[in-house]
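User: For a benchmark we're assembling, each entry needs the component sequences followed by a predicted structure for the full assembly. Here are entry 17's components. Please fill in the structure.
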Amino acid sequence: MGVGGAAHFADRLVDAVGRKGASLCVGLDPDPALMPEGVGVAEFCRGIVDAVASVAVAVKPQSAFFEAQGREGWATLADVCEYARDAGLLVIADAKRGDVPSTARAYAAAFAPLADAVTVNPYLGYDSLESFFAQDGLGVFVLVKTSNPGGVDLQDLPLAEGRPLWQHVAGLVDQWGADLVGACGLSSVGAVVGATFPQEVAEARQLLPRSVLLLPGVGAQGARAPDLAAAFTVGPAGGIVTASRSVIYADRGVGWQEAAAAEAERLAGELRAVAVAG
Amino acid sequence: MGVGGAAHFADRLVDAVGRKGASLCVGLDPDPALMPEGVGVAEFCRGIVDAVASVAVAVKPQSAFFEAQGREGWATLADVCEYARDAGLLVIADAKRGDVPSTARAYAAAFAPLADAVTVNPYLGYDSLESFFAQDGLGVFVLVKTSNPGGVDLQDLPLAEGRPLWQHVAGLVDQWGADLVGACGLSSVGAVVGATFPQEVAEARQLLPRSVLLLPGVGAQGARAPDLAAAFTVGPAGGIVTASRSVIYADRGVGWQEAAAAEAERLAGELRAVAVAG
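Assistant: Structure for entry 17:
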């Protein structure tokens, strides 16, 4: 724990995984076109939080869907984050920010009060991210190898040094987090690695022995939890498996909360087996 | 003009530069620690808009500083954008977003109603940006070579193909914008190239013959307008020179509006000379 500050993010994660038994995160992507009819964004997100709080360790609100709500969107995001933390969940703000240093300080100040961790984009380099790293107790997940097909356009480009860009970025993330390791042995600087690329998840684990891997793409994007065992070779908090649409839109009728709870429980069961095997 | 839609961004820019005589953009980075005492964020931004509207073609609100305002920040951003457009200015939302396709659609929906153009990050590749490109009339500025010192960490990495990453990205941006060229001959897909790197601005102009170059970094970050003539070899709207802190914080006392107007006028004068020379 920092002096007078918040506990280290990775230590809090290890504690939560110990209590819940599985490192499952549910993505909150509230899209009115997919949500149950007559349910508002805030009500929907609170309902999902209630449905998954007993089995998930974290929720990952995606800032885009709140910004798309217009003028009140940011207030709704703040409310949902507060509601999830009150329910005992860690909040990972999926914002993928990255900007020049004077602006990065403003982004860090915007997200640190809302969330336990935030996702960031490395394209602007170290000085665009150090304000996030410096926030006491904040976890930071740097995009390394993303889950979307188009990620290869830049991330898989071969460098002159002989490896693809994403592996070089993984090496940078390992350096950036080296001095930010918690009592549990894991750093507050983690990496986003698409669960849709299991081979790359295993390679990222080798390149990032101290980092928690945030693993989106399970469910709607086609990834499967049992393929992700490599992430957990450093312990049951070594990965955070994230599913969004497959959980929150498991049923779009009156049974939406029960369906989300059931799908989260099913995934958590798969994950318990994976993490034990890992 | 798209059928029933908004005019092409580059055509609107060319028109605005023709009317104002200089392609100057003023960045709106409202930081309470730097703003005149007793002036709120919305009041400050409206005051800057009033001060620069006669000489600038655009303002560039930086979303971070609005998000840092908390619950009401997004509504303030929306108000400021509306106020600037009512004052006859183009609005470039400096958001640097980039995410997987389902999320990118939400970001595009969030920003298209607010702004004439938006900045985006290419690390996730084409499918993360195509929702922005598809918005009728929206300009899109893709980060290519950023103005901050840390930008070299990724952007200057030498690729196996023999050039640095940023030049490869410039080539992609040229491809992505090839089918989105307006009547003026410029594409709605532009590129962010730090004015702090004049040599790279000239190289970017070669690699991106159809793109408007958004050139931040003049003033507080040390760049000078007269070094940017290469951007304007394709015409007076070939570049958008952006200054933020040096204009909006030119004076932090009671004369803040007059000082901002004077500094904007001084820069516009420099730019008129540059664009004519270009």
